[in-house]
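Box 3.1 A note on notation
Throughout this textbook, protein chains are presented in two layers. The first layer is the amino acid sequence; the second is a token string describing backbone geometry. Keep the layers aligned when reading.
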Amino acid sequence: MSAGERPNCSFTVLEFIDSRFRELYVESIDPNSDTTKFVRSQSSCRTDIIRWGAKWDSNKGRSYFLGHKREDVVKKRKEFVMYMLDHQDFYYYPIVPVEGSLAWNIPMRNKTILFSHDESTFRSGEMAATRWFVSDLTPFYSKGRGRSIMLSELMVAHHECDLFRLSDEEFARALADYPELQEDPSENIKYFKNSATAYIEPKKDCYFDNDTLLKQFRRFFILLKYRTAFTDHKFEVLVDNATTHATKIYDITKLSKSPGTKCIYEAIEWEENGVKKRVPCFDNNGVSKGLLAIAKEMLVIEQNVKSNEILLENLRSRMLKHPAFTENTRLEQLASVFDVKVIFLPKYHCELSPIEGVWRHEKNYARKFNDQKFNSFFTLLEDSITYYLKGKFNIKIWSTFWKALNMYNIGKTYKDVMQALFGARRTGTNVKHTKI
């Protein structure tokens, strides 16, 4: 059981029990026995483990830090670092003038405003007034009802704006041009005043999925042009690789092989060598062509391949290599309509996401003044945002971001960056990250 608690377990239960038994009871093993057979059956092992109090469940608690040294991740990080540093003079970024305090560098050409976006959950810790008690089985700490608020925020690298907001006058002009900006009471997603900052109370059918996030970003892109200080600027948004951001335009699992099957796409569109291409998913009679016929038109497979000669799994695997399925995400597609660039952060690198610093300050405030009552929790959330704005933390967070980029650029490791910029002073090896 203790072996299963290791962060890296490259063995199966059968293999582990078999190897340990052979180590401990050498004299009981027939030297002529078949070594390919295990000493215990799979069903016997499962019975023992269940009897010991374990259960078989989804493996959700995956360690996010184990991929920092992965070749593809390191490559993506280098590309990201080089892009940001090559374009640094176009951004508003913190500098240290002669006086010694941080100030904003104002770009002189190709003025570009950088945003950082993410979602985070604020837990109220609300407790029920009464509950059931069973002698000797009552836990010392009650986890409460679990009610929380999920916040989706956009922070800005700019000397006049910390978190993206419009003035009353600016928002009134936007509302006059886009009446749909008026909040719909029937919608689960709500917005803070004059902003694209969204929040929901997570429930079974209420969460920040890709569709919900696209609604928020469309609102954000519309509001951008009404911020007077942002006139004649370009815009870039930093986002992580969560599925809420990275959902592709076309989902290969939604396409079946045979004609006449259900298809949710009218056509597959992509750009190749600067030329836009399009393959309809339906024939002239309105019947879906099926993935096999579409693959042939897209020149993914040969024209003479028959349905019984290729498995659906193999067909989908070959289609995934086509530019139509490797190109932009739905978020990038939406952003391009409004002439906004979306930049994906390298995986496993939260330290390169500036908005994580916003959550740190706001959650510290919320934890300090939380009375564990959900009815007053939203007010506390508003107060935590006010605390962040008054604290002038924004320029310090963006300063840390650029310091991290420069450290990676000169060859520093993830460990070096964390120790130097985020107070991770311990020298021991990280073996586990606990979710709080």
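The radius of gyration is 27 Å. The longest strand covers residues 112-123.
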